[in-house]
Task: structure prediction
Amino acid sequence: MEKKIKIGIIGVGNCASGFIQGIEYYKQHPEREVVGIMHQDIGGYDVRDIEVACAFDVDKNKVGKTLDEAIYIKPNMVDWLRVPKSNVVVKQGPLYDGLGKYLEGIVEPVGERPIEELKKEIVAEIKKTGAGILINYLPVGSQKATEFWAEIALETKWAFINAIPVFIASTKEWAERFEKANVPVIGDDMKGMVGATIVHRVLAKLTADRGSELTNTYQLNVGGNTDFKNMLERERLESKKISKTESVQSQLKKPLAPENIHIGPSDYVQFLGNTKIAFMRLRGKMWADIPYDLEVKLEVDDKANAGGVIADAVRIAKVALDRKIGGALIGPSAYLMKHPPVQMADNVAKMDLEKFFE
Ligand SMILES: NC(=O)c1ccc[n+]([C@@H]2O[C@H](COP(=O)([O-])OP(=O)(O)OC[C@H]3O[C@@H](n4cnc5c(N)ncnc54)[C@H](O)[C@@H]3O)[C@@H](O)[C@H]2O)c1
Result:
């Protein structure tokens, strides 16, 4: 069994930067135990075994740069520590629908080239760097670009971790294709470590488990990075809203009527940077229909919240590759993602995941 886990990154933005800097942090602190959200060791792998083998972007300022430079280039803003010199050069990916209107003037795409030419180059780069795992960190709304990369995963037999709300693992046709090709896929749309979705899910489940009747609920999210700026374009948000809303609805005994649940990215507040603030409210009825009202404010570093989840997903995907397990990984997707093929209560998903390792 090869100890190193080679990964490819699609979209060298803030999530990628935080993930890479986090791995470096643990390399610099071998004594630190806290990693991921599951175990220090997953199937014999530690986060320090993860190595970026290739990376792709469309940003003129990032393509052609080595990874140790590209991850700090604006509009990226994660700057926790410096990483050592890397010999991975960021390669060009196809643009498709990657950049929405709010990123115009912020991200300037490198000149377009024919898709077939890019595809050849990408497949060659992936094959050259050896079997591994692709992580999709494209902006919300990148439907076509994500489908392109899912095809690449199928063709190269690299596992696919779909961190964004474009439905691949949770779509029957795609899941069947991954199953047929015996390539693992974990998706879709990662759940933060202690993010708004998981907190809202747990509280929604609590109201149901305690027998109260939830009458309405909202979750408003604000942040100041490019992810939030991009999400100002409501047309790009449809699947994000579905993903976040279904994730909470799935924990209730009876789903709320659409007019009684409002969940979604809500605004861009530039000075917040990578700080994400979620405001949640759950209102319901108790004994004798007497009302109650629960309010929560959660403030987190959006990228620290994302890193540990992907550290787990990567190691799980590697275990699946080692064991030649393909298709949508049901338990891992339910535990780590907002819109998995099968929604489960989080404790059930965790048990399912433990079973996967047995
Ligand atoms: N807590 C979290 O951060 C969290 C949680 C769940 C999901 N997500 C999702 O993860 C994704 C990444 O988030 P982020 O904060 O890193 O975003 P980001 O805007 O910082 O990074 C996106 C990167 O993709 C690049 N890109 C755009 N179009 C491309 C294309 N066609 N091909 C290759 N690269 C392209 C951009 O240049 C940029 O470098 C988003 O979809 C976000 O919604 C994040």
The mean pLDDT is 94.
